[in-house]
Amino acid sequence: MADDSPPTYSPDHFPSSPEEDTVEVAKKLGKTNMLQWMEIRVSEPEKRTTTSMKMQDTFMVYLIETRITDNDVKCKGDGTTSLWRRYSEFELLRNYLEITYPALVIPPLPEKKATYTWQNMATDKFDAEFIERRRAALEIFLLRCAAHPIMCLDKIFIGFLQKEEAWKDTVYATEFQSKADSKLKSLNASFRLKKPDQQFEELKNYSNEIQGVIANLLKVRARMADHQFGVHKLHGNYQRVFNEWSAIEREMTDPLQSAGHYMNVYAQSIDTILEEEEQYADQLKEYLAFGESLRSVCRKYECLQYDQERAEEGLTSKHSQKEALVQGKTSTGFSLGSLKKAMFGADTPEQRELKIKHLEEQIKVNEVELKQANEEMQKFVDAALRDIDRFKRQKTKDLKEIFTNYAIMQIKQCKKGIAIWTSAKDCFAKM
Amino acid sequence: MSDDLQEDGQTEPRRGKVMNKGEKQKFKDPLMNIVGEETDDADGELESLDLDASCKSDASMSRSSSLNVNLSGYDDNDAETHDMSITVDDPEKHSGTMDSYVTFRITLKTTRTEFVCPEYEVRRRYNDFLWLRQKLEETYPTHVVPPMPEKHSLRRLDRFSPEFLRIRALALQKFVNRVADHPVQSFDKNFHIFLTAKAWEFQSHKKQSTGLLGRVSDSLYNMGSSYMLKYRKPEFAAIQDYILAFGEKLANIERITQRIVKEQTDFHTDLLEWGPIYTLWSNSEDQLVSSLHSMTKAVETSSASLKELQSSSPDCENVQYNGQQSSSPDCETSSSPDCKISSSPDCEISSSPDCEISSSPDCEISSSPDCEISSSPDCEISSSPNCEISSSPDCEISSSPDCEISSSPDCEISSSPDCEISSSPDCEISSSPDCEISSSPDCEISSSPDCEISSSPDGEISSSPDCEISSSPDCEISSSPDCEISSSPDCEISSSPDCEISSSPDCEISSSPDCEISSSPDCEISSSPDCEISSSPDCENVQTIDATEDHFNQPLREYILYTECIKTVLRRRDAIQAQYEQTLDELNKRKEERDQLKISDQTYSLGAFLGKDPDEVKQNKQDKLEQQVKELTTQMEVLNDKSAVCDTDLRADMERWQKNKHRDMKELFMEAADRNVRYYETCLKAWEDTIHSIQGKDFPVTACDKPEREDDKDKDDDILLEKAESTETDKTASDLS
């Protein structure tokens, strides 16, 4: 990726840590993302229970392991770390990232509880299968962050990977929460925008579309899984009947029994198939969540634009006020000013001078503000567009891979089906 | 194998006798004439479905059995009997003023010398087949006569729906071919007449040779005696047990298959929905259009091949039948008034639009009590089309005027053609409409399986022979607004709630009868909801289900029916044996008496008491007993002969049947496996193509953001495929082992 411009939103207001050194070294070596010199794994979930205030709290923790793979980057120790994190800490990290880098498409976390399920899927929060899928998704989240040219340089992120104690405090120390725009504001902004930006409007629509489509896909898939499951499992019933039947036949006993065996194999085969297919669903779910990330970028843009428009508005009104004062005498019409004039008499020239001066000062301040807002917005737009571009490339590549994997899965399933039915046919042929 | 050899050795000498078919045919003719003349009464009973074909008188019996002994040697050699090939196809609907029915074209190609021409083509209706089967059962009570397709579709397919007719034609073809392959039955005179005679010839022959009223008591006697049997040969006891178990297994398989088909149909619907979503998605992507389209394509291909899996018959066949159906018979239907009755809309008729019908003689039916109907013209109706009528419209009739019928005059109806209907296939029919009927006075009628139905409509249905119905379409129906439907069947369907029905699995119903309804006079009714139904894809799905039927479940069905036939023959065999044993007992008793008499002193006998000479009395008694013993001995000999013949016939037929069954089952399952393999192969191909088209369209990969797969960046589809293959083979191997 050609994106090695300095991080736009990199905050550098907290003390340097030893970890920073490695990052600096890596940066100097021309590494554009963390994965080129580090290996990250989320391995091994573990169930823990803490008892505080007589309230039992059961949760899962996940072991995060890192290992520095590039010898040039390695500075001290063996370059490996491992620590436990729980889901809520991942959430904290993501919140931090989202607020700190409003222009970036932040990778989503796995769903909190299983959605688009079908009859035989576990819905329990502590179910091994569910935990395993969550573990995999958490790993993907970390890898996506680490692969990002900007996020991978973030101290908090690096701390999350490597610094066990007091990480939470450092996060809160950044006071990232204070930067968060209130929901109300963003809602307000989206309604009151005067001229919404075409690009971001499109992005918003796109994220809605993609979410709709994927949600539909997932819904139908869940139903398909149900029916496929049914089809296969029903074949299992043949085994029982074939066995019973073989007992009353003289000649076809063995073929019937082995055919029954294959019917059972067929029934069993669906379990692994659907388990694998769940992976496809998870990948789609990630992109369903990415839709939300995209929208969040749009929301933040809207807030900025709203600020900018407000600043512009303020400036224009100040200008017109000044105008009115300058040509004060000729002003007609019913206004507060004219009312005042009528009641207290016209301003003295001195007073007017003062007012104009005052206004001019305000205008100046406003102009600076507007300039800032403009700059900020421009910066945001640049950064956002760059990251969205990156996201789109990533998405195209990912989806192609996801579809390919799905096709491979289907091929596997077909081959399995062919193998089983061919064997069954051989059995029948011996009848 | 050793059995076979033995059998061959035994039968070798006999075969010489039957080689000359012409001679044998000649030998048989007089016998047939006897049967024909003898049964010359009771024309009206032609249509009846009496299941227990009756026994014939002893004289004809023994003669036919001796013939059978001669012929039974035939059984081992199937090849020799494959000299007749019969096809049944081209169903055509005929509408008369009273009655509409369907005829099938029967084409016979034969090399047998007793036929004048090598090829014949005739048209016969279902009832003619029934007649043939009945004649065969009468003529060969000790042989297994192949089963006929049931009179009614279990899924309440309309009698005139092309799907139903196609399946029926296939089943009838199977039936006649099985008869043709039978070493004895294929030489039957009635069979030949059935295959070759012109319509008028055939009708007059039918009239001449019908009648079995006198035999009912005989068969009843047989039924009773089978329970008095003291000792059944283990060989036949084994057959009986086997047949029972076999029938049960097949029924199980059938049920499983039906459930699978249902799931598959649902899955198919999902696939149909799932494919277009990818296309929709491609609207919002610019880089992924081709990938998404290829996904759609693959999904569509798999859904198409899934459909094929269910109906391996080529679609064109269906289309052809559809075309025929829509082009000819239905037009006639709407043009002539009676069709409306028979097609199904009778309910509406009775409620309001009956006016049109009432111009024809049927108006009396709905307007006033059924008595008149049953007495005169309705007989014909009830014999054939009324079945369908009763499936739906009878309810209405029964709701109002039928009550009277059911209380008394219906008995007459049932004694004539209707009783047969109710005894066998009517159960299914009555499952739906009868419920309501039975809540009213019809209960008495439905003394057999319908009573249960009536108490709480659908649950009990499944306990009785209606199981199949209730397991598939009816359950759902009843859960949905079918209650209303059944209360007065068709009206409500058409009025509104059919929409819901069609969305639920009731489609099956709507697929068959509703299509016709909408195409025929029902249009007015179906103007709103039904049209959509018939045009919707659900109908196709239903057709799919039906198509599976004729490839897997139809053959299964045939064998299930076969078990019934064999049971009947076994019962008849029991009866003959029982009769023999009875005679033997009687004989022994008399002999004992006679022996007792020889040594006994008649001084204190009644005769002596009355002043007769004891010796004379003794002599008289002895003479009488001698006479009785003599008579009984002859009778016993005849019966013994009969029983032996029966055993031989049955044994031979069972052997043939076992062989056929073995072959058919093998074929059936192999075909099913083959269909599945084909389905997976098509899908496999589709998905492989998808991978190629996803990977093939290259685009600049600049970003390597998806980290963990960085290494795989330049992998191509071949590697992917290989990977898939290798993991796959490993897995399958481990799975299968």
Automatic annotation (TrEMBL), chain A:
Pfam families: FAM92, PX. Keywords: Coiled coil. The keyword Transferase does not apply. CDD domains: BAR_SNX4 (cd07622), PX_SNX4 (cd06864). The keyword NADP does not apply. InterPro entries: AH/BAR_dom_sf, CBAR/FAM92, PX_dom, PX_dom_sf, PX_SNX4, SNX4, SNX4_BAR. GO terms for cellular component: early endosome membrane; plasma membrane; SNARE complex. It comes from the Eukaryota. Residues 1-21 are annotated as: Disordered. One of its GO terms (biological process) is positive regulation of autophagosome assembly. One of its GO terms (molecular function) is phosphatidylinositol-3-phosphate binding. Residues 356-383 form a coiled coil. Residues 40-167 form the PX domain. Belongs to the sorting nexin family. PANTHER family: SORTING NEXIN-4. This is PX domain-containing protein. It comes from Dreissena polymorpha (Zebra mussel).
UniProtKB/TrEMBL annotation, chain B:
Residues 573-642 form a coiled coil. Residues 11-29, 705-737 have a biased composition (Basic and acidic residues). It is a peripheral membrane protein. This is PX domain-containing protein. Its main location: cytoplasm. The lineage of its organism: Eukaryota, Metazoa, Spiralia, Lophotrochozoa, Mollusca. GO terms for cellular component: early endosome; phagophore assembly site. Belongs to the sorting nexin family. InterPro entries: AH/BAR_dom_sf, PX_dom, PX_dom_sf. Residues 1-10, 37-47 have a biased composition (Acidic residues). Residues 1-47, 314-362, 408-538, 698-737 are annotated as: Disordered. It is found in: Cytoplasm; Endomembrane system. Residues 326-362 have a biased composition (Low complexity). It holds the Pfam family PX. GO terms for molecular function: phosphatidylinositol binding. Keywords: Coiled coil, Cytoplasm, Lipid-binding, Membrane, Transport. GO terms for biological process: autophagy of mitochondrion; endocytic recycling; piecemeal microautophagy of the nucleus; protein transport; reticulophagy. Residues 82-201 form the PX domain.
